[in-house]
Specification:
The structure is a single chain. This protein is about 45% helix and about 20% strand. It is α/β, with parallel strands linked by helices. The strands form three sheets. A five-stranded mixed sheet has the order 4-3-2-5-6, sandwiched between helices. A five-stranded mixed sheet has the order 9-8-7-10-11, with helices on both faces. It binds 5'-O-[(R)-(carboxyoxy)(hydroxy)phosphoryl]adenosine and zinc ion. The site of zinc ion has 5 residues, from α4.
């Protein structure tokens, strides 16, 4: 089944889109305007983090997440519309994350968007959450295709070549844990609170990153794949050897872990940028970063150096737009809508949905008879 419908009223003028995000532990709604010139403006971006709902369990509990989305989403949508000063009738489209993510949450957001689409007689855009991360740099910095994206979040760690809306090539990804997951697990095993990434970064500030000689997995292998599970295990072994661990030991372990993780990512980024330069010699290489781990200062520093060494530009959207939010979903919806890509009301939520499987705009013959 093609998930994409041709939108006969394909918009080249300004478009106004409501976006809804519920795929993990943020309940979010926001409104974005995309001008006829392709520039974006965020009119509202309301994000309610569920961190406190899950903190007791040391990680996201899918059932609790889905229930909290149900309880909060209607009010958050209302607030997003009020803050933007628009009515449902003003919208050109309503967009929601349709995957990948925790399926209970995705269903809540997508069903809400479908209800709004039906009631307001507005087209629906089913957004791939990863595409929304990938397109954020076009909203914030107007980055032109093609560019490289490094997505580093709790669920994903991958280098992607973004060639156009709906046109992505995954160049490499983690073969085991996502980087955010490795930060979270490292925090947990060292007795630090959830979410682990910010806790590890905080502890690392007073730590000695050279004290523990941790591995840099896959570093000498060709390609752009990464691995973080061994690194996390090495932290466990080092912590067991040092037991009972003092606060200073924890700080040193966190700093050493962060150094190793940042080295791996920066080294892969260098290689990815070189590959990009070979593919597109006439284009200034741009590396955009997305995902919660992009908040990490040490990681950013390593990527910045990698970019400068290879003559590339690093684009790092503000942190609140790197982590899960609704403006990025609304923006992805607006970009797709502007190309005539809308979805039928029976589109299915997808727990797994690789970015390279996202529908592209079909130009020319194939496009004409596109049916649901
Ligand atoms: O993109 P995101 O908000 O949610 C998804 O996973 O989709 O990313 C959350 C992840 C968590 O694993 C969290 O620990 C990590 O990003 N994170 C960080 C930092 N802030 C958040 N990791 C390292 N350093 C940080 N400062
Ligand atoms: Zn995300």
């Amino acid at each position: 089944m093609s998930a994409v419908q041709e939108n006969s009223a394909s918009a080249s003028g300004p478009v106004l889109v409501l976006g809804i995000e519920t795929s993990c532990d943020e309940t979010a709604a926001g409104v974005v305007r995309r001008g006829a010139d392709g520039r974006g403006e965020i009119l509202s971006n309301v994000v309610r983090s569920q961190i406190e709902d899950h903190a007791l369990y040391g990680g996201v509990v899918p059932e609790i997440a889905a229930r909290a989305h149900i309880a909060m989403l209607d009010g958050i949508v209302r607030r997003a519309m009020e803050e933007a000063g628009v009515a449902f009738a003003d919208l050109d489209a309503v967009a929601a994350t349709a995957g990948p993510g925790l399926i209970g949450g995705v269903i809540v957001g997508l069903m809400t968007a479908k209800a709004i689409a039906l009631a307001a007689d507005t087209p629906l855009v089913a957004v791939n959450h990863l595409e929304a991360h990938a397109l954020t740099a076009r909203l914030t910095d107007g980055v032109a295709f093609p560019y490289l994206m490094l997505l580093v979040s709790g669920g994903h760690t991958q280098f992607v070549l973004a060639r156009g809306v709906g046109d992505y090539v995954r160049l490499g990804s983690t073969i085991d844990d996502a980087l955010g997951e490795a930060f979270d697990k490292t925090a947990k095993l060292l007795g630090l609170p959830y979410p682990g990434g910010p806790a590890v970064e905080r502890a690392a500030r007073t730590g000695d990153g050279t004290r523990f000689d941790l591995p840099r997995p896959l570093l000498n292998r060709p390609g752009l794949d990464m691995s973080f599970a061994g690194l996390k295990t090495a932290v466990r072994v080092a912590a067991e050897r040092a037991a009972p661990v003092s606060d200073q030991d924890v700080a040193d372990l966190c700093a050493s872990f962060q150094e190793a993780a940042a080295d791996v990512v920066a080294s892969r980024a260098r290689r990815a940028l070189k590959e990009f330069a070979e593919m597109f010699p006439a284009i200034e290489p741009v590396l955009v970063i997305a995902g919660g781990v992009a908040a990490n200062t040490r990681l950013r520093h390593g990527l910045d150096e990698a970019a400068r060494e290879t003559g590339a530009r690093l684009v790092a959207p503000p942190i609140h737009l790197c982590t899960d939010n609704a403006a990025m979903i609304a923006w992805a919806g607006a970009e797709r809508f502007a190309l005539g890509l809308v979805d039928p009301l029976d589109v299915s939520p997808r727990p797994r949905w690789p970015l390279d499987g996202t529908a592209k705009p079909m130009l020319g013959e194939g496009r004409k008879g596109a049916k649901v």
